[in-house]
Amino acid sequence: MIAQLRRLGRFVLDKLGRLGRASLFFMDMVIALGAFLFTRPGLVIQQVYSVGVLSLPIIVVSGLFVGMVLGLQGYTNLVDFGAESSLGAVVALSLVQELGPVVSALLYAGRAGSALTAEIGLMKATEQISSMEMMAVDPFQRVIAPRFLAGLIALPLLACIFTAVGILGGYYVAVQQLGVDAGTFWSQMQGRVEWVDDIINGVLVKSIAFSLVANWIAVFEGYDAIPTSEGIGRATTRTVVNTSLAVLGLDFMLTALMFGDK
Amino acid sequence: MIFDGIDLDIPRGRITVIMGPSGTGKTTLLRLIGGQLRPLTGTIDVAGERVHKLSKPDLYRLRKQMGMLFQSGALFSDLSVFENVAFPIREHTRLPETLIRTLVLMKLESVGLRGAWRLMPNQLSGGMARRVALARAIALDPMLIMYDEPFAGQDPISMGVLVKLIRTLNDALGMTSIVVSHDVQEAASIADYIYLIADGRVMEQGTPETLGQAPSAWARQFMQALPDGPVAFHYPAPDYAADLLSGEVQ
Q1: Between A206-224 and A2-36, two packed helices, what is the crossing angle to 10 degrees?
Q2: Which residues are within 8 A (CB) of A58 and not within 5 positions of it... i.e. 6 or more apart?
């Protein structure tokens, strides 16, 4: 009993310690952001390419398939009620409010977040971070903050692209394959999707919030990783698992706040 | 506790070697001098400045006058040899590109690797990587350079090259060098002064000549690489026969 309590206490203390370190890390990162943002934009652009542009294939292909599945499922269910004309709105609202930001954040965690963690963890394991410090170069300004900011920019853009491609996928299945009228498909979408309530709140606000969490977790796990191959492997796994859980939990809270009173 | 009442003076312009068995905190000592770690008690002064009391900007200002050669070389794997050496120059100066090129080639020439400037770190041998890292460490002409196990895992030729480079660069650039090593012969051959540390204390100190005739059994064991002596061959353990017969798995 005492041993179990001790284990529980150690577990809680360990988690609280990590949360404290992550908070201090976030503060250092924000301070570093202010220091380099206007003097070294090239560092951010380079990283936007790495985490954003290189993530495009998985985002575009996944977006297309998700949209196509939505079109097919939506049609199959709506046609029973003679409501297939609403398919455009169903596809668009599903993607804009939920699937666009959530799925792209989950894919981002797997593709770019894990890569960020592994890269920073390896830099730590091979003493590149230490050597940078000894050269009087702040790793927060040179390595951490540019990657965080690049991710912060990249994920909302990827979510927008995912949503747009998903709508095209839904259009292809609904209109080209299942015979839904193209004019109805687009006009229903135009009539039902609100600019502020759905697009700004859905795609933009949600994906910015997810981006903040996903990139914070990714860079922190890399910096906090035990500098061994096993330690980096575990940190990479933690990035994907923690980001996925955080995104899904945050999604519920944001959805309740944004759409709960409708 | 890693160090207990340790007291070292590193004379300016000399090569001071710190030797001791693995795990005695030699690298920790370098990190303390470089301000990457802070001592719980005691003081560390570099060029008249109390390192562990400095603010971050002041510490970084002091570090611009320090170089450190890490055991692994710690080259940036995504940058070429040229860009690695140019890194501290680009970060801390606003020199034109032609001057940066000249400086980088001069530094690479001094370590014999000017012809390798286009290569990436993964194309270098271990010895070459350390020489490139050395060129990077001296890029800003530091007053103090610290070498963390520079000879570990090197073949005899690379070791000879590194020994020669450390001595030559120290004398040519008028630097102060601290070499942490447990390669007795190589380290002693370039040392002006040696500290032998173990169990968190300075066990012996002196010039290579005086340490060769050191009276203590510990120093003799270390300097002559004897397998047994004050530093026991066996890790502390219960009685051998009793241990075998106890039958305990854990």
Answers
A1: 110
A2: A107, A111
**Would you call A134 and B77 a contact, using CB atoms and an 8 Å cutoff?**
no
Interface check for A28 against chain B (CB to CB < 8 A): the answer is no
Q: What span, in angstroms and rounded, lies between the C-alpha atoms of B194 and B188?
A: 8
- Measured distance CA(B189)–CA(A35) in Å, rounded: 46
> How many helices (H) and strands (E) would you count in chain A?
12, 0
**Hey, is A221 helix, strand or coil?**
helix
Are B170 and B177 a contacting pair, CB within 8 Å?
yes
* A138 has a chain B CB within 8 A of its CB: yes
Mean pLDDT for all residues in chain B: 85
Q: Which residue of A has its CA nearest to B68?
A: A134
Q: Please give the full DSSP string across B111-163, using - where no structure is assigned.
A: TT-GGGTT--GGGS-HHHHHHHHHHHHTTT--SEEEEESTTTT--HHHHHHHH
Give CA–CA dist A42/A199, Å, rounded. Answer: 30
pLDDT tens track for A182-199? 999 999 999 888 888 888
- In degrees to the nearest 10, what's the CA dihedral of B186, B189, B192, B195? 40
Residue B166 near residue B190 (C-beta atoms within 8 A): yes
Q: What separation in angstroms does the CA of B79 have from each of A125, A231, B108, B137?
A: 17, 25, 15, 16
Report chain B's terminal Cα–Cα distance, integer Å.
27
Tell me, what DSSP letter sits at residue A200? Answer: I
| pLDDT tens, position by position, A134-181 | 999 999 988 999 999 999 999 999 999 999 999 999 999 999 999 889
Rounded-to-integer distance, Cα B179 and Cα B163, Å: 11
Of A127, A134, A136, nearest to B72 by CB-CB distance is A127
| Calpha distance A174→A86 (Å, rounded) | 11
Q: Which of B30-44, B110-124, B226-240 has the lowest mean pLDDT?
A: B226-240
Expressed in angstroms, the distance from the first to the final Cα of chain A is 49
For residue A109, give the DSSP letter: I
Of B61, B74, B92, the CB nearest to A131: B74
- Give the C-alpha separation, A219 to A241, whole Å: 14
Q: Which residues contact B185 (CB under 8 A, 6 or more apart)?
A: none
Residues of B in contact with A137 (CB under 8 A): 87-88, 91
